[in-house]
Amino acid sequence: MERSVRATTAEERLRSRTDELEHALAPLGSGALGGESLRRAELMLDDHGFGAEFVPAEYGGRLERIDGLGRVVRPACRRDLSLGFGYGLNCYFAATPVWAAGDTAQREWVAALLLGGGRIAVARPAVAHANDFVRDEFALVRSEGRRRLDGAKTAVLNYARARGLTVIAGTEDGSHEVLLIDREILPEGALRTLHRYRTVGLDGCEFGGLEFTGCPVPEEAVVGEPGQGMGLAVRCSVVTRALLPSVLIAAADTVLRTAMRFAVETRGEDPYGPLKSTYGREVLTGALLDLLISDSVALAAARGIHLLPDRVSACAAAAAYTVPKLLQDSAHDLSTVLGEAYFDAKGPYGAFGRMSRDLPLLAQGHAGTAARQAMLVAQLPKLARESWLVDDEPPAALLRPWEDLPPADLGAVAPAGVADPVVPVLTACSGLGGELGELVGAFLGELRQLRGRFARITPGDGLSTPDTLALTDRYALVCAAAASLGVWREHRAARPGTFLADPAWITGALHRLGALLGLEGIPKAPQDAVERRLFDAVLERYEQQRSYDLYETTLHSPDRKE
Amino acid sequence: MATPTAGAPVHVRGPEGPWDDVLRPLSERGTVVTYGRVTDWLPEDTGERVLRPLLGPRDWGRFQRLTHRRVRDGFLASRLLLKHTAARVLSSTPEAVDLAYKPGGRPYLRGCDQIDISLSHTEEVMVVGVTRRGLLGVDVERAERPMVGTGVEFQACTPHERELLESLPEQTRNSALVRLWTLKEAYSKAIGQGLRFRFTEFGFTLDDARVRLQRPDGSPGTGPEWSFGTFALESDYVVSAALRDEGFGGTEDTAADTTLDQGLLGVLLGRL
Question: Which residues contact B92 (CB under 8 A, 6 or more apart)?
Fold first, then answer.
């Protein structure tokens, strides 16, 4: 605490707070909490006032930067996603509409709830291609001049223990309303807690059903402009999409660290083992690259909320679309390092299987994908015609994680952007020579092809065909490449000598993304020197206990030699 | 919760189907395995004008580089079965479906993750699996493929499986081994690894009631989200399927054109 008092910039406050949480959670080990140990971990977070992370500084909390929030939840998420996401970040997701459009009374109430250690849950509306989590929705009906809430939902996170509820309810005229509800002042019988919904993965997350029966809804429960609930929900989803990757990154960090631990502890000297064999080393370095790519696009999306609120939507949707795919695939690849130990439920390597099982659920499967694709498809034709290969590059601060930011105005976030937030970085890097220059050229070629195909699409039709949906996948990969390139370039310019300023990682990263795009004309694999540099980084971060993301945070564990 | 398994493979004779036999089990169970004969699926017109849009630029390039006739035929026919099956499931056309490959070779439908796909073929027969439940791997082998005594027992079996094989009468040992092999292939393909996940690190029971994945010592391996099945195909082939149910509940609609929520699009396109 001493250090956070002295910290004078948001970045310093963030670093010392992350360090404080790492220290606090050190006794837990990583990746395998359950039952009692999860409850104890929640209490540890309460003791450290974790709820303050989800409350903007102007309402008495610690939240100053969206990218900072994505970093400060990682110590908890690296240990257990049910802890960091289920108990933690999901409360911010539930509160986002209030921070974006709530009135002062609503904001003060949510701030007091979260600062006091209370929970807030969100009940989302039903969408196309729904799964059990977003299939049904609550209905807001008017009878005898009064509005009442009816209906049931199957799987709401923290359904039984959240006092605050953000409900996105369908209305009789087909629109939606966002409502903020205090469960403790409802009349008896208005809200029934249904049974728990068991999931594959995220075992410690309390999903379950809620049912409203004629629940009175006062006017002051409406968040934002009446009748504009869907618009508000979509704007808030830009923010949650910018944050979701951080949770997955923290999990993938533990997954890679556990694979390394297995490799070092059991197969260290084996000439065919993962540390010595070509394929093993490729898988381990590939996992590091996937993490760095994911964190780069997450960084652009999160800082874009502050710097480019009218443009950031495409990048946020691309991040939430592509990061889960990259990280789930690399977890599968890493399973070959563990072999039989992949099936361990506990013990030193149990975190691997457990975290891997959590990833698909966190990504929300196809329903999650479809919502992110809708966000992309609605704006990419316009960006193709008006922005790509034309617009100037984004401000340098977008991709400089160490720089402070102006406060975020969530009310200014646009559902669909007027220009591309990050892809112009590619054009700005077109003058690079050597292997990196060739790679950038190949991505620019891909961007030109995408422009040609998207520009032919009239907004509103032909959006949902498999070939258009495939183009959104390609765009997301190009966007991730541009964000990564930008992170490298800003480090090279302002942080020379650091790992992220080294061309090795960005060369490897663009190769990897290029392979996923099937880009023609680039060499098959990066040079040996690049591979060696990356493998050394994987090993070094393991040995020195530093995180496998952009921040190289010092990690603390029960067995760390202090 | 009873784990939904893949049902017996459905014969698809050509681009004309019968597709109802494919779509019905997919709708009911969430998973379907189809199979076809290479000779039934070879198109009469193999010109660029027809095949290039059907295969897409990448597979068209690969197809042109293949020289061995049987390999070429197998490649072409299996991609056609896969693309026609996927197109039916997505209510679209084979030309519109982007069949892509992960760097490790696993096929997937780019941009359409409402279904996962898997493909396997021998020289004569090809098998395509489709699921809307999560991950799927399929494998087909000739039932008579000689495996016992070729070293496969040692390179690909766990100690527990070797004991199991040795306990069987000699005349059934080879077919048991072929079955184990296809199960291993199916699981490893489901997680995108092929032979890279060492086959000696996991094994299977051969209990017909419920096939389970086990660790090398015979203790339980995967959790209840995984299910496995083996089927005989016209008595000449063995097909295995490995399925991971991600537990999102049934999403019956797999059509592409309903993927994007209209309310959401309305907001995004500024119509609301």
Answer: A465, A466, B255, B256, B257
**CATH number of the domain bearing residue B240:** 3.90.470.20
Q: Which domain holds residue B29?
A: 7-134
- Domain membership of residue B87 (yes or no) is yes
A231:B267 CB<8 A: yes
Give me the residue from B87, B220, B265 closest to A374, CB to CB. Answer: B265
Q: Considering the domain delimited by A2-118, tell me its CATH architecture.
A: Orthogonal Bundle (1.10)
**Which strand (E) or helix (H) includes residue A514?**
helix A503-517
Contacts of A467 in chain B (CB under 8 A): 96-98
Residue A459 has pLDDT above 70, yes or no: no
In A255-294, the residues whose Cβ lies within 8 Å of chain B are 279
Would the pLDDT of B234 be above 90? no
Smallest CA–CA distance from A354 into chain B, residue: B223
Cis previous bond, A466, omega within 30 = no
ipTM > 0.90 for the complex:
yes
Residue where one domain finishes, among candidates B103, B134, B165: B134
B105 and B155 part of one domain: no
d(CA A89, CA A72): 10
Strands B116-121 and B125-131: antiparallel
Helices (H), A268-277: none
Do B264 and A366 lie within an 8 Å CB cutoff? no
- At the second CATH level, the architecture of A122-228 is Beta Barrel (2.40)
Burial class (CB in 10 A: 0-12, 13-18, 19+), A199: buried
- Res B255 pLDDT > 50: yes
Contacts across the A-B interface (CB distance below 8 Å): 173
